[in-house]
Write a structure and sequence with these properties.
The protein is of the alpha/beta class. Helix content is 39%, strand content 14%. The chain is built from 11 helices and 12 strands. A 6-stranded mixed beta sheet has the order 6-5-7-10-11-12, with helices on both faces. A two-stranded antiparallel sheet has the order 1-2.
Length: 347
């Protein structure tokens, strides 16, 4: 009787889950369906799974996502990628929303391969979504020396300001000094994720995607006041982290290009001042209001056209650094509707 009761309970539970799964698929719009790209990391908080491939499903797009043995999105390199271009950033650099090969670092890589053939410099996409700038600073201090890069492209996004506060990978002391912190311990969703992803295809459940989305809503980054004056105390942490990233590159004699996405005018003014004080060039990507054709309508990330535009802007800027095997022919109109600030070629 005990065995029959347990079996009946199990069948009933499975039937209820299947029914709920069907209801969610038919009537609920789930923002993200598919396994997580990352695992918990004791240094960075999260890092990409290595040698990993999956599909991500959203109301606006379906994308294939693949990482190589280094844990970076992109094809497996023939050798360790030294003396190349290293891209750092969040989900815009990672390429959330577009299939493998359509993310702008890989568009840059393919353009360089086509132009220079076997002499093309390697490209490393070290972008990881859903994090602020603290991970980039830790990566510069701990790992960038392995790649011996000839250029670093650092992508910044407006939501970094709130994510830096939430992650707490760095804090500001009373004297304004950055203090590195250990990542927060893995949250409950990480533990559930491991169980679900151990069962084939279960991570593609829309019901699980809905539960994950509900959990994320309860752990959203803190809301910073929208008023420019009121948010200044909160914004200092991000300015300090980015300043340390830039200072590190300058002191290490690593050429640096900064790509800015979605910054509000007051923040853009402060960040531009920081970069100009180091004589570091920056590109300001067109906002969604300026170029809605470059973005997904709901999701807010770049679509394929947006990544192509970003790649063209970066390629045009890279030419002026003199880090390529030979001068790269400028792409006409590459920086159309974008702003290139403090660039050597504009002096």
């Amino acid at each position: 009787m005990i065995w029959k009761t347990a079996r009946l309970a199990l069948v009933s539970m499975c039937a209820a889950l299947l029914l709920n799964e069907m209801i969610v698929r038919l009537f609920v719009s789930v923002r993200n369906v598919g396994p997580s790209f990352t695992v918990y990391d004791a240094v960075y908080g999260k890092s990409h799974k290595k040698n990993f491939s999956c599909e991500r499903i959203t109301p606006e797009f379906r994308m294939t996502f693949t990482t190589n043995s280094l844990g970076h999105r992109g094809p497996e390199p023939p050798a360790f990628p030294e003396h190349g271009i290293v891209f750092l950033g969040d989900s815009f650099t990672e390429g959330l929303g577009v299939d493998d090969g359509e993310e702008f670092p890989d568009v840059v890589r393919r353009a360089l391969d086509q132009r220079f053939g076997p002499n093309a410099v390697p490209v490393v996409n070290a972008g990881v979504g859903n994090n602020g700038n603290g991970r980039c600073l830790k990566f510069l201090h701990r790992e960038v020396h392995r790649y011996k890069p000839r250029l670093i492209v650092l992508q910044l996004m407006n939501n970094d300001f709130s994510e830096n506060i939430q992650e707490q990978l760095f804090l500001l002391s009373e004297t304004g000094t950055l203090v590195e912190q250990s990542p927060q311990p893995p949250h409950t969703l990480r533990l559930v994720q491991n169980v679900f992803e151990a069962i084939p295809r279960l991570s593609y459940s829309y019901l699980f995607g809905l539960v994950r989305e509900a959990y994320w809503m309860t752990t959203r980054p803190p809301q910073i006041p929208p008023d420019p004056e009121l948010r200044k105390p909160f914004d200092r942490l991000t300015y300090a982290i980015v300043d340390s990233c830039v200072s590190f590159c300058v002191n290490a004699r690593l050429p640096l290009l900064v790509l800015i996405v979605g910054y509000e005018p007051d923040r853009l003014g402060v960040m531009t001042h920081i970069l100009e004080s180091y004589d570091v060039p920056s590109i300001v990507f067109p906002s969604k209001a300026e170029r809605p054709d470059l973005y997904f309508q709901i999701d807010g990330h770049w679509n394929v056209k947006g990544h192509e535009h970003a790649a063209l802007m970066v390629l045009e800027a890279v030419e002026a650094f003199g880090v390529l095997p030979q001068p790269l022919r400028a792409q006409p109109g590459a920086a159309a509707n974008g702003v290139l600030r403090n660039h050597p070629s504009s002096q």
